[in-house]
Specification:
mainly alpha; 6 helices; 2 strands
Length: 150
């Protein structure tokens, strides 16, 4: 397929846009976690309670750092997959599926902790979980690309 005939994937465009938004949220929360800024602005919920809980870190690493890494990788794969030469690369499709699955599962776990263990909600965490859920469902389009590449 020539570059003139190439039609970029709308699902990958959305994965890229949503990953960028998620990256900004994760960076905001990470900046707070490492002490680069004051209290988290939280109009809905109790972000301070969530951030103060022992579940806000895993192995001493802020949970938001995992979000930064995950959203950065999803953004990079989404943008790379919009390029004609990598549009049908199975590695791009598989990477998006894998990262979306892991990110969605991690979001479900963190949302469970907020609801049933911490008993507090953070609007930024919930926003990130919603973004990751949408990205997860958008990643289903990648299964078709994987089948075509075999």
């Amino acid at each position: 397929m020539s570059p003139e005939e190439f039609q970029p994937s709308k699902s990958r465009m959305w994965v890229s846009v949503l990953s960028l938004i998620g990256l900004f949220i994760a960076l905001y929360m990470l900046a707070h976690s490492v002490g680069l800024m004051g209290p988290v602005l939280c109009g809905i919920g109790d972000c301070a309670a969530v951030e103060a809980s022992p579940y806000s870190r895993m192995g001493g690493i802020p949970v938001s750092a995992f979000g930064v890494v995950g959203y950065t990788l999803l953004l990079a794969l989404g943008l790379a997959g919009l390029q004609p030469r990598w549009a049908e690369a199975p590695g791009i499709a598989g990477g998006i599926i894998a990262l979306a699955f892991v990110g969605f599962g991690f979001s479900v776990y963190l949302t469970y902790l907020e609801a049933y263990v911490i008993h507090a909600w953070c609007q930024w965490c919930v926003s990130s979980a919603i973004l990751m859920t949408i990205i997860f469902f958008l990643s289903f389009a990648e299964f078709g690309r994987l089948r075509r590449s075999q």
